């Protein structure tokens, strides 16, 4: 670090090492222009030229005076921030993630920074719909603005061409500064501002005396007086001067045709009214603190007390509370306390749960200090949360996995709700991180604590809790005398024999559905497969609908009359006859949610049925809408994939029906039992959540006697854990080992196989046969025309130096990637793969 009093200050040239949001391992050194040198700070964003034409946003990681040895440093073009936008703590975390998950720091930055903070040459420029001050534009800017008006948006390059400048960042920055334009990434939705323009009385006019004087002084200007009176009729400040602070929406005036807009402007010019703006986000419509504080039950108080006690010694506590035990209220209590002590809190939720009920509940309690960070929100909303944390507006953030990358500086507590959820793991692109695990590190860096919560904890977390590494707190009662639902296993083999099934529906399930419809109670039906049927098959020649790009069958969608690949998105028309033999006997095989929904319409034409799966919830508020309809009783039967199992809290669900439990249990994967237990328990947990309305869960299976089902029925998490953990130990799977999956991809199967073999051969001598499995093709061998081979590496938790092993693996991967005889293979390393 240079001290500002350095004698050599005048002569030293500063250099900055920058993190560029690109997949390149090292930092890049750029030269700091002299006029920037007193302002530039670590953590600030800069704009630099990268490559021939690209201009990108980078973050300053270090400032020093050593020119790079191997290349001539280019100048930084632009400094975007006076104050760091990335904190020192965040940089530490980014480095940790890059190191642990074997990826580049730039890739971490790229995922961490919302696109709105990354101006790139791929950005598009849009007119700010709220732009007012045309008079501030320079001639050149006006040309750009006129062009945008014509075309809606312009790309960075188009602006470049238009202005014949080589570097337009200054120009763009100026336009952004004048609030004339907005930048957005092409793929993202456009920014719909949620700004409300308001006016209020200036401070000097709030006393009754001043108001009287003001009113009479406006006698000569009746139009202005009318405005004032209109304002006072909505905002009676003479009763309560505090009301003035909230002001009045300007549209109130503009909608009233008898009022003069000019008069309002005059009042503003005179300084009688002042204008201001507020930004509202979607959740601002939820009234803050609508409910008074909820008193914790004895069980909840006890859980809360135990959590505190464990935190005296431990960094992490696992709260294992059955579905409906009221974990949320325990969280709320914890959050309250930590916020009151002046520290920040982060509450992580799995992707899908976020738009749902729990956020509304939290919002009601915490109001404006709570920021929401969701991938379905627009980028601008995410930037608002980022900046809101930096400037202290948000002390508490509820968010999805990427929220761990926000600029916290004083985290006291991170809560990871539904910690077993796989959506905490990012699969693509790198960093392939698990936010639950990173949360523990992040809290530790802040000297804060982590609270993991679930009714069905991951084996890893429960293992740590059992071993005393984490504190363990259990809640075994449902709130308010509600009881866990009763189970009935339906033997569909028997039903089929006695011809009682109607397609996918057993007679028992049909009876219950009928009863529920008659008694106006709600039902949730669970089938963990979307589409109408997973494939089509020809009865003559056994042809099966297959994706042309992937080794997987095409799912049939009846309503769209389409075949779709769930791996690459490829779509086809449904063939009228078998493409292989021309037969017309092409049949749908198996069933998904669309088929269940379709059959329900036939079986119960009067029932109001909704479907909730990836296909019906793509639109922005669709998920929310389906939940709301169900909540308000507008839906009788909700059919869905595992989406229906996630943390939903409904009053009136008395039946949960589960199709095809066997397929979930026998999924060919070592975590199948754990996952099946979690999925079945979670979806069952949606039934009977209110006292006096016991719920029932009907599971259709070919084998009612199988041990895992028995454990689900008896709510025997412990039993599942004991059985599973023994297997894991025996076969050397997590939590006894850590898994690293290395996947080799290439369009030519031979090349891919050869490269994978070569890589395995390099790993084997040091790691040994028991630690290196494969190479073997994954379940789906070809995706998007790339042939895949997996090598699974198992590293014992205790014995192996994980860090050393990882750098060894990375080294060997680099060897393969740089091998001239293996052309253009891709290798993906996934640390702690799921
Ligand atoms: P979990 O997340 O453990 O499945 P929830 O936190 O959703 O359970 O709680 C289940 C239901 O019980 C919710 O509707 C919640 O509002 C209610 N509830 C929980 N604790 C209390 C309490 N102390 N007072 C009033 N209602 C409560
Ligand atoms: Zn055929
Ligand atoms: Zn495909």
TrEMBL record:
The keyword Hydrolase applies. Binds 2 zinc ions per subunit. Its EC number is 5.6.2.4. It is an enzyme of class 5 (isomerase). It catalyses: Couples ATP hydrolysis with the unwinding of duplex DNA by translocating in the 3'-5' direction; ATP + H2O = ADP + phosphate + H(+). Zn(2+) 1 binds at residues 538, 541, 578, 581. SMART domains: DEXDc, HELICc. CDD domains: DEXHc_priA, SF2_C_priA. Zn(2+) 2 binds at residues 547, 550, 565, 568. Keywords: ATP-binding, DNA replication, DNA-binding, Helicase, Hydrolase, Isomerase, Metal-binding, Nucleotide-binding, Primosome, Zinc. Its cofactor is Zn(2+). Residues 509-728 form the Helicase C-terminal domain. Belongs to the helicase family. PriA subfamily. Initiates the restart of stalled replication forks, which reloads the replicative helicase on sites other than the origin of replication. Recognizes and binds to abandoned replication forks and remodels them to uncover a helicase loading site. Promotes assembly of the primosome at these replication forks. Component of the replication restart primosome. This is Replication restart protein PriA. It comes from Dyadobacter sandarakinus. The lineage of its organism: Bacteria, Pseudomonadati, Bacteroidota, Cytophagia, Cytophagales.
């Amino acid at each position: 670090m240079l001290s500002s009093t350095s004698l050599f200050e005048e002569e030293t040239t500063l250099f900055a090492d920058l993190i560029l949001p690109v997949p390149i391992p090292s930092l890049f050194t750029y030269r700091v222009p002299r006029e920037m040198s007193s302002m530039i700070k670590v953590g600030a964003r800069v704009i630099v030229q990268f490559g021939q034409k690209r201009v990108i946003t980078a973050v300053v990681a270090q400032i020093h005076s050593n020119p790079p040895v191997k290349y001539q440093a280019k100048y930084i073009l632009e400094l975007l921030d006076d104050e760091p936008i990335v904190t020192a703590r965040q940089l530490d975390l980014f480095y940790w993630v890059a190191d642990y998950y074997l990826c580049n720091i730039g890739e971490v930055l790229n995922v961490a920074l919302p696109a709105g903070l990354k101006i790139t040459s791929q950005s598009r420029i849009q007119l700010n719909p709220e732009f007012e001050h045309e008079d501030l534009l320079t001639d050149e800017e006006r040309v750009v603005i006129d062009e945008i008006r014509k075309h809606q948006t312009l790309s960075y390059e188009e602006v470049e061409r238009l202005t014949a400048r080589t570097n337009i960042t200054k120009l763009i920055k100026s336009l952004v500064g004048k609030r004339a334009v907005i930048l957005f990434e092409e793929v993202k939705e456009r920014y719909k501002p949620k700004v409300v323009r308001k006016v209020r009385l200036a401070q000097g006019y709030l006393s009754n005396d001043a108001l009287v004087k003001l009113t009479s002084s406006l006698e000569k200007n009746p139009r202005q007086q009318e405005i004032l009176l209109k304002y006072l009729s909505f905002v009676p400040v003479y009763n309560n001067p505090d009301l003035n602070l909230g002001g009045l929406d300007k549209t109130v005036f503009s909608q009233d045709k008898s009022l003069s807009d000019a008069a309002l402007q005059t009042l503003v010019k005179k300084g009688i009214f002042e204008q201001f703006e507020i930004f509202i986000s979607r959740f601002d419509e939820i009234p803050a603190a609508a409910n008074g504080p909820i008193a914790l039950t004895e069980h909840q108080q006890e859980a809360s007390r135990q959590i505190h006690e464990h935190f005296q010694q431990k960094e992490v506590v696992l709260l294992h509370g059955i579905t409906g035990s009221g974990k949320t209220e325990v969280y709320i209590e914890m959050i309250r306390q930590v916020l009151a002590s002046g520290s920040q809190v982060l509450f992580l939720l799995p992707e899908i749960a976020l738009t749902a009920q729990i956020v509304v509940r939290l919002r009601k309690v915490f109001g404006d200090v709570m920021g929401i960070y969701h991938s379905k929100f627009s980028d601008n909303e995410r930037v608002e949360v980022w900046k809101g944390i930096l400037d202290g507006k948000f002390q508490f953030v509820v968010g999805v996995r990427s929220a761990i990358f926000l600029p916290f500086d004083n985290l006291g507590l991170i809560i990871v709700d539904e910690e077993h959820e796989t959506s905490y793991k990012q699969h693509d692109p790198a960093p392939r991180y698990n936010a639950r695990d990173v949360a523990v590190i992040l809290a530790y860096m802040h000297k804060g604590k982590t609270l993991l919560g679930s009714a069905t904890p991951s084996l890893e977390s429960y293992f740590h809790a059992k071993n005393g590494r984490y504190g363990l707190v259990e809640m075994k009662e449902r709130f308010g005398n509600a009881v866990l639902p009763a189970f009935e296993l339906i033997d569909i083999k028997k039903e089929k024999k006695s011809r009682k099934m109607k397609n996918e529906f057993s007679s028992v399930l049909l009876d219950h559905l009928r009863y529920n419809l008659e008694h106006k109670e709600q039902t949730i039906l669970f089938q963990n497969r979307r589409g109408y049927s997973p494939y089509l098959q020809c009865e003559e020649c056994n042809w099966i609908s297959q994706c042309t790009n992937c080794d997987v069958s095409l799912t049939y969608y009846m309503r769209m009359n389409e075949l779709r690949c769930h791996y690459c998105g490829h779509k086809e028309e449904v063939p009228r006859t078998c493409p292989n033999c021309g037969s017309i006997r092409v049949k749908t095989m198996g069933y998904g949610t669309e088929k269940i929904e379709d059959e329900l319409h036939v079986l119960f034409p009067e029932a109001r049925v909704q479907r909730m799966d990836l296909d019906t919830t793509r639109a922005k508020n669709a998920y929310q809408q389906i939940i709301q309809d169900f909540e308000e009783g507008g839906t009788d039967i909700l059919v869905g994939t595992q989406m229906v199992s996630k943390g939903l809290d409904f009053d009136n669900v008395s039946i949960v029906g589960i199709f095809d439990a066997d397929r979930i249990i026998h999924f060919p994967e070592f975590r199948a039992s754990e996952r099946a237990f979690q999925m079945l328990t979670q979806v069952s947990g949606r039934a009977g959540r209110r006292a006096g309305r016991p719920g029932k869960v009907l599971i259709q299976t070919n084998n009612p006697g199988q041990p895992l089902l028995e454990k689900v029925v008896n709510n025997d998490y412990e039993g599942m854990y004991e059985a599973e953990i023994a297997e894991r130990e025996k076969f050397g799977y997590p939590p006894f080992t850590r898994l690293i999956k290395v996947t080799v991809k290439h369009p030519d199967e031979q090349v891919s196989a050869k490269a994978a073999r070569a890589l395995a051969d390099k790993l084997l001598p040091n790691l040994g046969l028991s630690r290196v499995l494969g190479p073997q093709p994954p379940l789906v061998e070809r995706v998007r025309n790339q042939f895949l081979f997996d090598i699974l590496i198992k590293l014992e938790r205790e014995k192996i130096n994980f860090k050393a092993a990882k750098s060894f693996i990375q080294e060997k991967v680099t060897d393969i990637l740089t091998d001239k005889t293996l052309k253009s293979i891709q290798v993906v390393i996934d640390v702690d793969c799921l």
